[in-house]
Amino acid sequence: MFCSIIPPHLLNHLAAHADPVLAGPARRTLDGDHQRRQVRHEAALATVRAAAAPRAAAEAKPDRTIYDAQHRTRLPGTQVRAEGEKPGKDASVNRAYAGLGATFDLFHQVYARNSIDGRGLPLHASVHYDREYNNAFWDGKQMVFGDGDGEIFLDFTLPVDVIGHELTHGVTQYTANLEYSGQSGALNESVSDVFGSLIKQHAKQQRAEDADWLIGDGLLAPRVEGQALRSMKAPGTAYDDDVLGKDPQPGSMDDYVDTQEDNGGVHINSGIPNRAFYLLATGLGGFAWERAGRIWYDVLTGGELSSRAQFADFARLTKAAADGRDEQEAVTKAWSEVGVDLS
């Protein structure tokens, strides 16, 4: 249930490196993440229960608070910026504040969703978490950002799609609550990549054909041979590095990875539905959040998606959610190209 932007298979690879400067931060990140998984699981259960409880409707506007963890692990840390306050000198604080706002804006302006839970949930984030912490995560209640080790990963507030990705785990938590294992877990990760990319595109007002379709562009340090963490356009091509290894994501069911690691490959096989969305969005053209994004959002929030849904289940629901014959045909073509049968 612990949903972080850097997958464990990548950190494991880095932790095995002979150079302690590279391996040490990865090992400490893995150890800390292991301890946080149970906390994340308990927080998820609490938010699911809270979602069922009555609560007064909130006015649809962001309510952001940013904290400085001061390189410690006790959350949330010291409050450094509240909603409406002017930017300060700390760039990480300012980027986190802007990223929370960009995420709120997409879901509210495009899908009429009032924050992560749909009922005005305040958005909290802590920056400067731990020392050389190589990750960012949603813990069920708030966002947390590490500064990276500076050797492999840079500050995790740099890519706005990383912020959007992690906050979308919160949206999924309050809606379909996709089980974090196997294909349903890969769908959970893919949905976060989809909306993380849409949040970046919406903030930049980019059309589908102009977007880079990369997740985590700007996160890798200059020494790393790669563009980003993942490519939705071409899974498996985001990086090929002596230290990190090669991007293992498949772009088709023909190359589906059957593994027990990473909760059944949730960060790996998510490349398949990622590419299906890319194909649909570019096939339809225009702003991806308007048509392709609407289909994905309606399926995620519509109440018919099982928490244990497989790729084919999700694909069939996207076809049913499509508006008109042209969209249905485009959906069918996109999923067919990645080897997912809708029949």
Descriptive notes:
This protein has 343 residues and is an alpha+beta fold. The chain contains ten helices and ten strands. The chain has helices at residues 8-15, 20-52, 91-111, 160-174, 182-204, 262-265, 271-284, 292-301, 311-321, 325-337; strands at residues 3-4, 64-68, 78-82, 123-127, 136-138, 143-145, 214-215, 230-231, 240-241, 245-246. The strands form three sheets. Strands 1-5-6-4-2-3 form a six-stranded mixed sheet, with helices on one face. Strand 9 and strand 10 form a beta hairpin.
Q: TL;DR of this structure?
A:
The protein has 343 residues and is an alpha+beta fold. It contains ten helices and ten strands. It has a six-stranded mixed sheet with strand order 1-5-6-4-2-3, with helices on one face. Strands 7-8 form a two-stranded antiparallel sheet.
Present the secondary structure layout.
Blueprint: E1 3-4, H1 8-15, H2 20-52, E2 64-68, E3 78-82, H3 91-111, E4 123-127, E5 136-138, E6 143-145, H4 160-174, H5 182-204, E7 214-215, E8 230-231, E9 240-241, E10 245-246, H6 262-265, H7 271-284, H8 292-301, H9 311-321, H10 325-337
Helix pairs in contact: 1-2, 3-4, 3-5, 4-5, 5-7, 7-10, 8-9, 9-10
Shape: globular
N-to-C CA distance:
31 Å
Strand order of the largest sheet: 1-5-6-4-2-3
Q: Output mean pLDDT.
A: 93
Oligomer: single chain
Helix count equals 10
Q: What radius of gyration results from the CA coordinates?
A: 19 Å
User: What is the structural class?
Assistant: alpha+beta
